[in-house]
Design goal:
CATH class of the largest domain: Alpha Beta
Strand order of the largest sheet: 4-3-5-6-7
Helix content: 25-40%
Oligomer: single chain
Strand content: 15-25%
Radius of gyration: 32 Å
CATH topology of the largest domain: Rossmann fold
Largest sheet: 5 strands, mixed
Distance between the termini: 60 Å
Length: 430
């Protein structure tokens, strides 16, 4: 940066005595105005280096998490007061059940959050008429309230402790296909119960469900005026049916849930992971294991074809062997080996079997344990299909890619202790 100092003009009537003149230079430099009769110019001196004081670093803003109830009220107020809707009109509002913003799962906490939102709207925002979330009300193209409740690290550290929750609300207009308003807040963790609801606790596999992904992106990846994510909007006709069937399963009405989930397959939009998972779970609860495993095989094939499939194997505490519980792990292994072998032959695909752990303990130990579990699963797969020997590699991730990341242990973060199948580059052969 150039520094300029005030200039003082030379006075010509006394030029014989010489004068000084300040001129702009890099740094503040002073040179002599030589007398006019002197012909030879003086050798210029090297510019003086002037230290420029650097501004003190600005401290990052302090991120504050409010008590849970206050955070919900703040996010709701933020949402409804910013909604740009015609004055003097009332609006029908349905609430699509809230989810965890990372996993898409519903929990005791998300249910409680939905109940509190319903109460806030009824008591404070009378222009919105909350109606049941069902197909008939969705057909009228109402406003849809969606939201995520996600554990985060307040300092923004991906590997840091999850010491708060991020509350995200969005108001979507099905008539215009646009986001009307958004609301945000951060909540403290006290009093929050993250226990997954039975359907999500029991699900054997975790895959990227496009509708759930679209729901989350509509809430977390948009601004007011943006379009609703198409993956969610295009298949919103079936989400109420999925919710009804899921509630039947959570209420232990397994015959009803099986019938409801199966009926959804008549709609092309119903061919999705949540529906197949519900059919699998309902069949298992009704003792129909063969029918359940047929669905499991289809789910595994879809997940591997989509290049990512997480399997919620239960392992012995601190060990690599499978736990002895009610899940049919031997049949899971058999189906996974069969699907892997078929895909490897038909699409020349190889797979990485990655081991993952929850947070807690030494990370080097977590990585070692994760690798041991991945190797164990690989050996079980090879025992079923020897042709997988050159198709499967293993890696231990420890807790570096934890999805829930609360470190609370079963059943809160069982998804963190998963085995994940990913497409991988096949080794070159000479």
């Amino acid at each position: 940066m150039k520094h300029f100092l005030p200039s003082v003009p030379c006075r010509t009537r006394h030029a014989s005595k010489g004068c000084f003149k300040w001129v702009p230079l890099l740094g503040a430099s002073m040179i002599a105005c030589a007398p006019q009769e002197v012909v030879r110019a003086p050798v210029p001196a090297a510019p003086a280096t002037v230290a420029v004081a650097q501004p003190a670093p600005v401290a990052p803003p302090v991120v504050v998490a409010l008590p849970y109830g206050d955070a919900v009220k703040l996010a709701a107020r933020d949402l409804f007061t910013k909604a740009k809707l015609p004055d003097g009109q009332s609006f029908s509002l349905v609430i699509d059940p809230l989810v965890d913003g990372t996993t898409g799962m519903q929990s005791v906490a998300t249910v409680a959050l939905e109940q509190q939102v319903t109460e806030i709207v009824s008591n404070n925002y009378p222009r919105y008429q909350v109606k049941p979330f069902n197909a008939a009300n969705l057909a009228a193209a109402p406003l849809v309230f969606i939201g995520t409740f996600t554990p985060i690290n307040l300092q923004g550290k991906a590997s840091g402790e999850r010491d708060a929750y991020r509350v995200c609300f969005a108001l979507a207009d099905l008539k215009t296909g646009k986001i009307v308003s958004k609301g945000f807040a951060r909540s403290q963790t006290d009093g929050i119960d993250p226990t997954p609801l039975p359907y999500f606790r029991d699900a054997p596999l975790w895959v990227n469900d496009k509708i759930v992904e679209g729901y989350i992106k509509t809430c977390q990846g948009t601004s007011a005026g943006d379009p609703i994510n198409t993956a969610y909007l295009d298949k919103v006709s079936v989400v109420a049916g999925i919710d009804e069937a899921t509630k039947a399963y959570n209420s232990k009405k397994y015959k009803d849930s099986l019938a409801l989930f199966t009926a959804l397959l008549r709609n092309p939009a119903g061919d999705q992971a949540r529906v197949h998972t519900g059919i699998y779970l309902s069949n298992v609860k009704l003792g129909r294991r063969d029918a359940a495993m047929q669905v499991f095989s289809k789910m595994a094939s879809q997940g591997m074809s989509a290049k990512r499939l997480a399997v919620k194997f239960g392992f012995q505490s601190g060990g690599s062997a499978l736990a002895k519980d009610e899940n049919p792990y031997d049949r899971w292994i058999k189906e996974l080996a069969s699907v892997s072998s078929k895909l490897a032959k038909t699409s020349e695909t190889c797979f990485e079997v990655g081991g993952h752990t929850g947070r807690g303990g030494s990370e080097p130990l977590n990585e070692r344990l994760a690798l041991q579990r991945a190797e164990y699963v690989k050996q079980r797969l090879l025992a079923e299909r020897k042709d997988l020997a050159n198709v499967i590699s293993t890696k231990g991730y420890g807790s570096s890619e934890a999805l829930v990341a609360t470190g609370k242990g079963d059943p809160f973060d069982s998804l963190d202790r998963r085995i994940e199948f990913k497409s991988a580059q096949c080794p070159t052969t000479s």
